[in-house]
Write a structure and sequence with these properties.
By secondary structure, the chain is mostly beta strands. The protein has helices at 76-87, 163-170; strands at 2-4, 12-23, 29-39, 55-61, 69-73, 90-91, 107-113, 122-127, 147-150, 153-154, 158-159.
Length: 178
């Protein structure tokens, strides 16, 4: 018999218990129990976009090449939407998954800036193919980690679809096929 429980959002992902009962030849009973709980690695507050962002730069480029798309976002409502999008993402979980090979693809870079500073407060980079319509908790997002840096310090890679929402918000296509 296997008993499973629903995930506890932000705490536990997989929860199950397997119990087997077998009669022994000497008249006794053999009881076997096995369980698994998978903790969710949560994102720390220090891994959020710092407040006060006044500009977001979005580029898409083939690795080692100049950007073929570059947008500077200064509209406060759009900046707020992009910041909330990134702050809502989870971190890569310690799952094992076989990822498909897509070959070289454009990389989307998102740079967050505060007023009067040349140094970015945060940066993110992700493959332009990471635009699937999967739920955020699907393990497949691990194949498309979003590298993330806050104030010059690398943070845990993030997971989720940022490509589609940014394309819709800015009315652009971030990936380009050869």
């Amino acid at each position: 018999m296997i008993r499973s429980w629903p995930p506890v959002h932000g705490v536990l992902d997989v929860r199950w218990l397997e119990i087997e009962v077998t009669a022994r030849t000497d008249g006794g009973t053999l009881l076997y129990a096995k369980s698994q709980s998978q903790w969710v690695v949560t994102r720390q507050l220090s891994e959020q976009i710092p407040p006060g962002v006044s500009e977001v730069d979005v580029t898409s480029a083939w690795p080692g090449k100049p950007p073929f798309i570059s947008r500077r976002v200064t509209d406060h409502a759009k900046i707020h939407t992009i910041v909330l999008l990134f702050d809502s993402l989870g971190t890569v979980q310690p799952d094992e998954i076989n990822c498909p090979s897509f070959g070289p693809r454009p990389v989307v870079a998102v740079t967050f800036r505060n007023p009067g500073s040349d140094r970015p407060v945060a940066r993110a980079r992700v493959s332009s193919v990471a635009s699937f319509r999967w739920p955020a908790d699907v393990a497949g997002w691990t194949c498309f980690p979003i590298t993330f840096n806050v104030r010059g310090h690398n943070r845990s890679p993030l997971v989720g679809n940022v490509i589609t929402p940014i394309q819709r918000l800015l009315h652009i296509k971030l990936g380009r096929h050869r």
